[in-house]
Every structure is written in structure tokens, then in C-alpha cells.
Amino acid sequence: MAIDPSTIRQSTRATAAAAAALARWRAARFGLFIHWGLYAIPAGVWRGKRVPYIGEWLMFREKIPVSTYSKLAARFHPRRFDAAKIVRLAREAGQRYLVITAKHHDGFAMYDSPSNPYNVVAATPWKHDPMRDLARECKKQGVTLCFYYSQDLDWHHPDGAWNTWDYPQKKNTDRYLKEKVYPQLRELLTQYGPVGLIWFDTPLTISRAQSAAIRRFVKKIQPGCLVSGRIGHGLGDYGIPRDNQMPPGRLAGDWEVCATLNHTWGYKTHDHDWKPVDNLVRTLVESASKNANYLLNIGPKADGSVPAPSVTRLRGIGRWLKANGASIYGTEPSPFAHEFPWGRMTTKGRTLYLHFFSKPARHFELRGLRTRVLRASPLLTPRTALPAVPSIDAATGMPRLQLDLTRLRYQGPVTVVALQLAGAPAVVPGPIQEPDGLVSLLTAEARVGSDQGQPELGITPLGFTTRWRRKSDWLEWDATLLAPGEFHIELITTHQHLEPWSGGHTARIEVAGRSLRKKITRDGELDYIQKAYFPRVITRMGRIAVAGPGTLKLRLRLDKILPPPKEKPLWDDLSPLIVQVRLQPV
Ligand code: FHN
Questions:
Q1: Angstrom distance (rounded) from CA 37 to CA 103
Q2: For a tag on the chain, would you pick the N or C end, based on fewer CB atoms within 10 A?
Q3: Atom of ligand 1 nearest to the CA of 242
Q4: What is the Cα–Cα distance from 451 to 334, expressed in whole angstroms?
């Protein structure tokens, strides 16, 4: 077959542009998400009633007819919108890219869209295109401009997904894509200069072919424009966990954790549950340690101003980043696949950053690092040398590093220690017992097997079990145990808040010659950063004794698997979601 050389050149160019764009995006690590649209006018209140759920879903929640909802446009005149101020806020926060809702599920274009009159210039008394201002300011202030675009759900177009109260007929998605999505994407990609990425969202009904065609369309117009994972069908340039979801361990490939400052995305008058700066900084660190960017949202009010609690929080993160940014920007994830009870790690070349989430013990020990440490010092006072003494555990051969942190001044929310290494960090793979005795076995670090042929059970890229439908399938870990003794064993499962929890199955753990069997019950809940969104439920399985140090093998089976719930949750896998097994010293 003859190959046209011009196509090769073009595709190589396109790939190079995409790779460079992805590298730039990854190095940025922190972005500003902006949900702004007509929904900021009702701000979560409709006909005098507070509507539950996130603010931008108000039209759907109340099944407001298009003819009524669209009248909001006549009231949209945001006199306090100031693009320079918003971009400056992103800069102050240390955010290097900005993603704003060009069109959300309500179908209203927040920019000048000649192809569709339902837009901010043609349909509001403001008659103004805020994206032009933002594009200008982003360029001036060195922030990458990106657009959010709802490619599937559109409650305004008769063939967009999910408006069945105005348009009960079967949807013709191709017609919607042709009439609305493609013309609007072309506008977004030609009217505002280079666009960093299109943040597609909520691929609930579009087909793989449709997602692939949209991706091709974007890349053809701007080869360097990235496409978010929620284009659907695994076709994005990077992945996105669920909203406000933090995966349990390090991830393979590129990811972006998207999160809110309170609970809503679009502004709501009555959501005052703001996350503290400590939590936000730690989420940023944790994201970076797991190979994910952090995209943190503000929901401006209908007058264009940014709620004051959002401003103070973003500035708070910015203050921390200004001093500690070297441990975040341009870093690679932790060399370890698992988490640590004391904090997280990031890497840059031969430097390993230890991020402490609370004041560490004076004599701190790190296990599993194989690379020689040349120097240890606090990131903020690099001239302070922290004594670092390596040794090898006689029984297991495990490398141990003793750090004397007497001269480390701990400052919240996160204090960073930089380890200069003799080479890129190399570590012992697999779970390692912590100095305090804890053994944490993440699903992401498990082996999957079966007593009968190939297992059906799998582990998702985010580190949860999936398709656990057969009793013959199992998970198995090999952990390095330095200090044997007695342990309480806990099984930890998860689910999305409000969705059915995957309890009731019967688990069996085989370890150290014992077999512990128990129904998965709610004996407790883990206290962790995203517990409000994805609770982690503890089942206490029982107690075991381990006689000697070395490799500890633990196998988890399900002896009884309940049928899936009748009402299928929108997002969650229906089989039991196992995150972790923990061995806590007695
Ligand atoms: O339905 C949307 C929601 O309104 C919001 O835009 C978030 C942001 O990640 N995405 C969807 C839900 O996942």
C-alpha cells in the first residue's frame, strides 16, 4: 500500500504538538475551574425553595421548561465581572491554567456563538463576550485558557441528552452534534487563540464513534489542544476520577482531580460549607504525589464577582505554593505506589520531596528507598542539614533511612523535606510495614487470581476492584513485615456518598495459616480527606498473630456475593468495591 508522506509528516507534527502540550499541562499541576452561567441567577433557589444538589443542575432537578429557564438570560447583566481580577486570582493561587464553562448542560453558551443565538452576547442585556476578556487577560498574565464544554448533556437542544420534560421523543444525537456541538467547538477553537484543552464532561449517551469524531475534530483545528478524559470511551489525553474523588494510590498515566471549594460547582447562596486551606493544600500535594493535576473550582455569582470565601482560600493555597512550589510544579509522582500515614511524596529528577501533613517524630524512618541519600534538608531552609543514616534490616534486607528531624521547624499545612539522591529514586516494590507497625495493602498493589481459569475480577485504573462476581476469584498481596506480632485485620470498602454501599457480601481473608470469615459490615469509617464524597467503610475481620519477619502473604476472597442492587446507580460499579486491607498492630 502506498503511503502518502504528507500524512505522516502531519500526524508526527500533531503527535509532537500534543505531547508538548501534555507535558506543559502536567508541569502546571494546578488549575482554576470556573462554573459560571445562567444558573448563578437562581443560585440554588427556585420559586422560593432551596433546591438540593449542585447549583448548575437546577434546571434538571426542577424540570424547568426551556421556555421558562431561558428567560433568565434577560436578567443576566454581570456588572462586577472583571476578567483581569479573575486571572490575577488564579495567579495568586499559583494556578497555571484556567478552565471555564463555555457551555454547561443547560445549553447556554457563555460566549459569542454566531451559530446559536442562545448565548451571552445575543440573548442578554449585557451583550458582552467574557471569553474575549479572559483570553486577553490569560495571554497577558501567562495563564493557559481552556474551555469546559458539555458535549452530551444539553437540556436546551431537542436532541441533546436528558431533557425529557420538554422533549420526550427519542434523541437524534448526530443531529444535535451537527447542529450545535461541532459549530460551537469550531467557534471556541478559532475565536480565542490557542486553547489549552477542551474539558468535555459527562459522557452518558454518546457512542465511541461520536466521541472519537469529536476528538478528531478538535485536534484537526488545534493539534496542541488537549481533550479531557470525559470525552468518553477512554479517548481523552488524560483521565479524570469522579468529582471530588481522590484515588487510593499512585496512578499510571496522566490524571486530573477536579474538586469544589464547598460542594456545589455553580454558585449557590446557601452552600457555606467551605473546605479549609489545610485540606486544599493537602489535596494538591496528594494529587501531585499520585500523578494528577488538581483543578479547583470557583462559582462566580450572577454579578460576576467571586464569593469572598473562595478568594481567601485560593490566596491561602497561593501563599503555601509560593514558598513550596518547587515540590509541586514540574514534579513526578511518588516512587512508591502506596500512601504513607505521615504524608505524601513527589519527585523531581534526583530530588525526593517528603511532604509532612503533621509534625513528624524527631526520629523519622523511611523504609524501602534503595537510592543513596546525599543530603536531607527542609525545603524552606536548604542550608539546614538534617542527619540521614541508612541501614539494612537484617531479617528482611529492607533498606531503612533514619532521618533526624530535630532541626526541622514544622509549619502547617504541609512541611517539605528535600532529599538529594545519588540517582533517580529506586524503591522496593509492594507493601512494606510502617515503622509504627501498620501494614496497608491497597487493591492497586494486589495481584488478581482465580481458582478457575482466568479471573473475571479486575482492578480499575483508579485502584478499585471491579467485576467481582465470582467466588473463585481472589486478590493477593505480598507484604514485607519487619516487626511480627499480633494484628487486627480490617477490610475497607468504598462507594459514592448517596449511592448504595456495597456491604452485605461475605469476605474471607487467608493469612498466616488462619482463615477469617465475616460479612462486610459497617464497623467504622475511615477519617480521610474525601470522606464526605466517597466514604471508606471499615469491616473488622478479626485478629491474627504472625510469628516471624519476612514476606507476609494475604489472600482476600468473597465467599458470598450478593446480587447487584435493583436500582442501578448512575456511576458506580455494581460489584463490591474493595479499596484496602489493613493490619493494625494490637
Ligand atoms: O454534571 C457535571 C457537573 O455539573 C459539574 O460540571 C462536574 C464538574 O466535574 N461535572 C459533571 C458531573 O461529574
A1: 8
A2: N
A3: 13
A4: 34
Domains 21-327 and 439-585 are alike in CATH topology? no
User: Would you say the CB of residue 285 lies under 6 angstroms from ligand 1?
Assistant: no
Ligand 1 pocket, 201 CB below 6 A?
A: yes
Q: How far apart are CA 283 and CA 290, in angstroms?
A: 11
Beta strands 388-392; 524-525: pairing state: unpaired
Domain range list for the chain: 21-327, 343-421, 439-585
Q: Ligand 1 centre from 251 Cα, in Å?
A: 22
286 Cβ inside 6 Å of ligand 1: no
What is the whole-number distance in angstroms between the Cα of residue 92 and the centre of ligand 1? 25
What is the grid cell recorded at 84? 483581569
Q: Evaluate whether 449 touches 476 at the Cβ level (below 8 Å).
A: yes
Question: Please, what CATH class does the domain formed by 439-585 belong to?
Answer: mainly beta
SS3 string, 477-541, reads: EEEEECCCEEEEEEEEEECCCCCCCCCCCEEEEEECCEEEEEECCCCEECCCCCCCCCCEEEEEE
Nearest ligand 1 atom to alpha carbon 57:
4
Pocket test for ligand 1, best of 104, 265, 496 (most atoms within 8 A of CB): 265
Q: CB-side exposure of 315: number of CA atoms within 13 Å? A: 11
Q: Is the CB of 240 under 6 A from ligand 1?
A: no
Q: Is 243 in the pocket of ligand 1 (CB under 6 A)?
A: yes
- CATH code of the domain made up of 21-327: 3.20.20.80
pLDDT digits (tens), the chain, 586 positions: 333 333 334 445 557 888 999 999 999 999 999 999 999 999 999 999 999 999 999 999 999 999 999 999 999 999 999 999 999 999 999 999 999 999 999 999 999 999 999 999 999 999 999 999 999 999 999 999 999 999 999 999 999 999 999 999 999 999 999 999 999 999 999 999 999 999 999 999 999 999 999 999 999 999 999 999 999 999 999 999 999 999 999 999 999 999 999 999 999 999 999 999 999 999 999 999 999 999 999 999 999 999 999 999 999 999 999 999 999 999 999 999 999 999 999 999 999 999 999 999 999 999 999 999 999 999 999 999 999 999 999 999 999 999 999 999 999 999 999 999 999 999 999 999 999 999 999 999 999 999 999 999 999 999 999 989 999 999 999 999 999 999 999 999 987 766 667 788 999 999 999 999 999 999 999 998 888 898 899 999 999 999 999 999 999 999 999 887 777 665 556 677 889 999 999 9
Domain 343-421: state its class.
Answer: mainly beta
